[in-house]
Design brief:
Length: about 190
């Protein structure tokens, strides 16, 4: 399964240029479909919020600081874990085949990282292993629980829309999902995810 599930992340090419990268947040939110480009966490289950990440760090390529194509909608945790890491130290070389990064809004991301049946992120390449273990620490974060909470949140949104005219059976499903989501959210909050 893909890290982003059924969501395909793509940056639009018609976004109006801004002089401050923070002004792109609404565009990023829309293009990344309300999830972290790196871990797939839905913005509604994070207590630390979402923010733009510079895919190629500013210290490597200051000219791309306000370049929309260089920004990733990222959860606070992934953004802090990645920080200014850029193993190649070359603005034009994202990875060297062993270490580095792959743009999460590209098809190539799926060749390096995926999810197992439980929702954990696993690596499929050396570059994926670098991102998994050294850049984002997916191996020590509650990624399965994040994924499950994100999926439950999506179901909760769908059920909430239907609950007004729902059967008693659907209302019970909604309550069960809401309770499970609340428990996972409390757990993730305690983990500072």
């Amino acid at each position: 399964m893909r890290v982003h599930g059924a969501k395909v992340l793509r940056r639009r090419s018609d976004v109006v240029s801004q002089n401050d990268y923070h002004k792109y947040e609404c565009d990023l939110q829309r293009d990344f479909q309300y999830i972290c480009g790196y871990c797939g966490k839905h913005e509604m289950i994070t207590h630390k919020g979402m923010e733009p990440d510079h895919f190629v760090p500013g210290r490597i390529d200051p000219s791309r600081k306000t370049d929309y194509t260089n920004l990733v909608y990222s959860c606070f945790t992934c953004n802090r874990k990645k920080s200014g890491k850029w193993p190649t130290e070359d603005k034009d070389l994202y990875n060297n085949g062993i270490e580095g990064f792959v743009d999460p809004a590209s098809d190539a991301y799926d060749q390096h990282l995926k999810r197992d049946a439980d929702g954990a992120i696993v690596f499929c390449s050396d570059v994926g292993e670098y991102m998994h273990k050294k850049a984002f620490d997916f191996n020590i974060r509650p990624i399965k629980e994040v994924w499950k909470a994100s999926q439950l949140y999506e179901k909760k949104i769908q059920l909430h829309k239907l609950i007004q005219s729902a059967s008693d059976e659907d209302k019970v499903k909604y309550i069960e999902i809401d309770m499970e989501l609340t428990q996972l959210h409390e757990y993730l909050f305690a983990c500072k995810e």
